[in-house]
Design brief:
Layout lengths: L1 H10 L4 E3 L9 E6 L3 E6 L4 E5 L8 H27 L9 H38 L9 E3 L1 H33 L9 H15 L1
Antiparallel strand pairs: 1-2, 1-5, 2-3, 3-4
Helix pairs in contact: 1-2, 1-4, 2-3, 3-4
Protein name: Claudin
Keywords: Cell junction, Cell membrane, Membrane, Tight junction, Transmembrane, Transmembrane helix
Subcellular location: Cell junction, Tight junction; Cell membrane
């Protein structure tokens, strides 16, 4: 869920939605701005989008959001592949120690993906709120956080929870191995004494 939501939030165009403030009557119902395109939904039902081709002309927080969200998607995909190897229900990965190490590595990937997904959404939300509270910006240019921002927050939470679960499960496996060492078969002392008695009797 975290990886799917992360990819969805990266591609959605509604990171920023025009705020319904003031008494201005405009033709468009909704104006949305995303990381890769800006879209407008008109009252006639038409929907038009414009791609953001120039990277250098974008604000710094949008450039950072693009980079970190793409890294988050890549890390979450790596995390899924690695943790699949580390699961007990799969036949990949070899012995228990190898699976434990793979589970830990996948958990680290999920945690990093969650952090990379949480930073841009927080920064983007901060910029939206600061612009909304700025009195010098006209009301027609003010925006509110869109659905993609909330999707990014929820996905980052899922990824962080998944990473913690996989990392702690790895530690539990290792701790169980230390507490319960493999049993070694020894002959009982009584049996050894009995065998020793037989040997002495034979010599007598």
């Amino acid at each position: 869920f975290g990886a799917f939501g992360d990819i969805t939030a990266t591609l959605l165009p509604n990171w920023k939605v025009n705020a319904d403030v003031g008494s201005n009557i405009i033709t468009a119902i909704t104006q949305m701005q995303g990381l890769w395109m800006d879209c407008t939904w008109y009252s006639t039902g038409m929907f038009s989008c414009t791609l953001k081709y120039s990277v250098l002309s974008l604000p710094v927080y949008i450039q950072a959001a693009r980079t970190t969200m793409v890294l988050s998607c890549i890390l979450s995909a790596f995390g899924i592949c690695i943790t699949t190897v580390g699961m007990k229900c799969t036949k990949l990965g070899g012995d228990t120690d190898s699976k434990s190490h793979a589970s830990f590595a996948g958990g680290i990937c999920f945690i990093l993906a969650g952090i990379f997904g949480l930073v841009p959404t927080s920064w983007y939300t901060r910029e939206i709120i600061s612009n909304f509270l700025d009195q010098t910006i006209p009301e027609s240019s003010k925006h509110e956080p869109g659905g993609a921002v909330y999707t990014g927050f929820i996905s980052a939470g899922f990824l962080l929870i998944a990473g913690v679960i996989f990392c702690t499960s790895c530690f539990k496996k290792q701790q169980g191995a230390w507490i319960y060492p493999p049993q070694q078969h020894h002959f009982p002392s009584t049996e050894q004494e009995r065998n020793a008695g037989y040997n002495l009797k034979d010599y007598v």
